[in-house]
């Protein structure tokens, strides 16, 4: 933003703030929002720019929510409200690494050997209620780290279903050590690479043994600290929501973990765990449309780790 323009904006903003009770209220809301999300800015200029982005996002959200019913979902102001769309994508979405799908693809025969069936799936599943989903994590500054959290979440939950034992596993282990599988720490990566890495090393360390530091560090994997292992990875049939209904998945260039599904007021939804902390979405989760032509690509390139 050019200095002159900024001055004018600053002037009109200040004038407006001085003018109306409502503007003072908005400024108060901004201060509260900053406090809630631990925001601080390097200069007044940066704060003003961020405030303007926040105002415009807030306006967009309010306008959307007036018609929330027709969209099928409502929005709310979260910790990313001072970011512009493009900027957000750059910081938090990873470039999708082109990965030759070298995983075994789900077939009807494989379904039988896995003991999965399309016909007897319950109407409603929420694994959080069964105690097999660890708390929502916050990947923090490690922008593209979602691939590591999704992979870890999938291994945690499939292991817990198989063994009854739920443990936090180390996303840091994957961020630091899976580079020979095409991953680049906090820059970019794929769930596929993370899962292949886990198969190759014979497991992944516990979070306790290998804690999260939100940046790429030296690989310090120790086989004696392994908390879970997987023997392979199955690639679900591309775009098949009925396959996904039986499995755990990742989604395009931001990876998330599907932990359940159901139907509310005749609307089918997926329950999806993210890694942007519990302030984001609904306590860290998002509910996404199900059986709406694979909306948002939820069943595209979905993977399932095999214990
Ligand atoms: C994410 O993926 C979408 C669809 O494949 C693509 O249009 C978009 O440019 C990607 N974004 C980033 C930041 O890689
Ligand atoms: C996992 O870590 C969280 C803190 O992030 C902790 O509250 C929880 O008890 C740990 N264990 C399990 C099994 O979720
Ligand atoms: C999966 O489906 C999407 C959307 O239809 C398509 O763009 C993509 O190329 C497919 N991927 C594979 C590996 O077939």
UniProtKB/TrEMBL annotation:
Sequence ranges assigned to domain Peptidase C1A papain C-terminal in this UniProt record: 121-306
CDD domains given in the database record: Peptidase_C1A
Region forming the signal peptide: 1-20
Sample GO molecular function, one term: cysteine-type peptidase activity
Record-annotated Cathepsin propeptide inhibitor domain positions: 30-88
Pfam families: Inhibitor_I29, Peptidase_C1
Keywords for the protein's UniProt record, in alphabetical order: Disulfide bond, Signal
Stored InterPro entries: Papain-like_cys_pep_sf, Pept_asp_AS, Pept_his_AS, Peptidase_C1A, Peptidase_C1A_C, Peptidase_C1A_papain-like, Prot_inhib_I29
Gene Ontology biological process terms in this record: proteolysis
Family, as annotated: Belongs to the peptidase C1 family.
Record protein name field: Silicatein
């Amino acid at each position: 933003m050019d200095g002159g323009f900024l001055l004018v904006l600053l002037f009109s903003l200040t004038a407006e703030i001085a003018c109306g009770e409502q503007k003072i209220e908005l400024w108060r809301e901004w201060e509260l929002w900053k406090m809630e999300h631990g925001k601080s800015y390097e200069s007044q200029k940066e704060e003003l720019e961020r405030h303007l982005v926040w105002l415009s996002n807030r306006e967009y959200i309010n306008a959307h929510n007036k018609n929330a019913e027709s969209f099928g979902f409502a929005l709310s102001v979260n910790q990313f409200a001072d970011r512009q769309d493009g900027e957000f994508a750059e910081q938090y979405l990873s470039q999708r690494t082109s990965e030759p799908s070298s995983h075994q693809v789900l077939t009807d025969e494989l379904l039988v050997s896995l003991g999965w069936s399309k016909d007897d799936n319950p109407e409603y599943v929420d694994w959080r209620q069964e105690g097999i989903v660890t708390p929502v994590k916050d990947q923090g500054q490690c922008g593209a780290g979602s691939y590591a959290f999704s992979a870890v979440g999938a291994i945690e939950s499939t292991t817990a279903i198989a063994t009854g034992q739920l443990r936090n596993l180390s996303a840091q282990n994957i961020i630091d050590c899976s580079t020979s599988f095409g991953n680049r720490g906090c820059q970019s990566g794929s769930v596929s690479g993370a899962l292949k890495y886990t198969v190759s090393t014979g497991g992944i360390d516990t979070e306790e043994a290998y804690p999260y530091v939100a940046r790429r560090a030296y690989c310090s994997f120790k086989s004696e600290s392994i908390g879970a292992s997987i023997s392979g990875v199955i690639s679900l049939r591309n775009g098949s929501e009925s396959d996904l209904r039986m499995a755990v998945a990742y989604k395009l260039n931001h990876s998330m973990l599907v932990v359940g599904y159901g139907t509310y007021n005749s609307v089918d939804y997926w329950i999806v765990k993210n890694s942007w902390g519990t302030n984001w979405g609904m306590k860290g989760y998002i509910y996404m449309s199900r059986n709406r032509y694979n909306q948002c690509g939820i069943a595209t390139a979905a993977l399932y780790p095999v214990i």
